[in-house]
Structure formats: C-alpha cells, structure tokens
Design a protein that fits this description.
By secondary structure, the chain is mainly α. The chain has a domain at about 45-70. It contains five helices and no strands. It has helices at about 1-25, 35-40, 45-70, 80-95, 110. The mean pLDDT is about 70.
Length: about 110
C-alpha cells in the first residue's frame, strides 16, 4: 500500500517535471525579437555619423600602419651599399661592446687555480 502511493506520487512528480521542461523549451526568447527592429528605429543622422566616425578610424589606422613601416632601416632594400651599411653598423656595435673584438689577453692557467 505504501509503495503504490509512493509510486503514484513519483509518477505525478515526473509528469509535472516533464510538463515544465516542455513548457520552458517552447517559450520564445523575447530578447531576440527586438534586435531586428533596432536598426530601423535609429535616426538616419545617427547612422551617418556612426559610419563617418568609423571611416575616420579606418583612415587613421591606415596612416599609423604606413608610419610604422619607417622604423629601423639599415638600407637592406637598397642593394649592395645598404648591405655594407648594415655590416658597418653591426661591426661598430660589436666594437663598442666591452667584450667585443680586439686583442685578448692570455689567461694564465696557473693563476686561476688559486
């Protein structure tokens, strides 16, 4: 007797849960309905202003890109003389470095053991 009442209660609870799930899945999402009309509701001057500002932003970004190409140029794209200039600058940087080229002093191995 007790188990049949419990079984009926579980069936009823299961039916209510299934009804709730089906109800939730069938309800439309209202937030997507308003997106379609949002462009039509905007005034034309606001849209034109937005497009103008977007175009100016693109032009500024393009100018910045062109100016960023003018960074360090060793003249490698100018042929042999540019390559010579690059080698000269690299050699000068190495020569100014403390451990750069030059006469190295011989290290006495006997003094290093102390």
């Amino acid at each position: 007797m007790f188990s049949t009442n419990l079984l009926c209660l579980l069936y009823l609870l299961l039916a209510l849960i299934m009804e709730f799930i089906l109800c939730v899945r069938s309800t439309p999402i209202r937030s997507f309905e308003s997106i379609g009309n949002s462009i039509e509701e905007q005034p034309e001057d606001v849209l034109i202003d937005l497009i103008t500002r977007y175009g100016q932003t693109i032009m500024r970004a393009r100018d910045d890109l062109e100016n960023s190409k003018r960074t360090v140029d060793f003249g490698l794209s100018r042929g042999y003389s540019g390559a010579q200039e690059a080698k000269h600058r690299m050699a000068m940087a190495v020569a100014n470095f403390a451990g750069g080229p030059g006469r190295k002093r011989k290290v006495d191995i006997r003094n290093m053991k102390d």
